[in-house]
C-alpha cells in the first residue's frame, strides 16, 4: 500500500491589524507504516511552530486534518493554492 502526501495551506491576513498568519496541515507517511499529521503555524515569512501527531492509519489522520481545517476556517483563515493566491 502506498501513502501519498496531503497538504493544506491556510492564511489569514488583515492589514488594519498588521495580521499575516499561515497554518499548514500536512499528512505524510512515517518510516514504520503509519502516518504523521504535521501542523505548522506562525507569521507569514517566518518558520513558525510545529507539532506532529502520529496515527496508525490514514483515515484517522485525515479525520484529524479535517477537524483542524474546520477549526481554522471558523477562525477566519482561508485556503491558499500552490502559488500563494486564494484558492
Please, what is the CATH homologous superfamily? Answer: WGR domain
Number of domain units: 1
Q: Report the sheet with the most strands, covering strand number, pairing sense and barrel closure.
A: 5 strands, antiparallel
The third-level CATH topology is: q64v53_bacfr protein fold
Count the strands? 5
Proportion in β-strands: 35-45%
**Radius of gyration over C-alpha positions, nearest whole angstrom:** 14 Å
Kindly report the average pLDDT value. 89
Strand ordering within the main sheet: 4-3-2-1-5
From the coordinates shown, what is the CATH architecture? Single Sheet
Structural class comes to alpha+beta
Low-confidence stretches: none
Put simply, the count of helices is 1
SSE pattern, N- to C-terminal: EEEEHE
Q: Give the proportion of residues in helices.
A: 10-25%
Provide structural commentary.
It is a single chain. The protein is of the alpha+beta class and 87 residues long. The chain has one domain: Single Sheet (q64v53_bacfr protein fold). The chain has 1 helix and 5 strands. The chain has a 5-stranded antiparallel beta sheet with strand order 4-3-2-1-5, covered by helices on one side. The longest helix is centred in the C-terminal third of the chain and has 17 residues, at 58-74. The N and C termini lie far apart (30 Å).
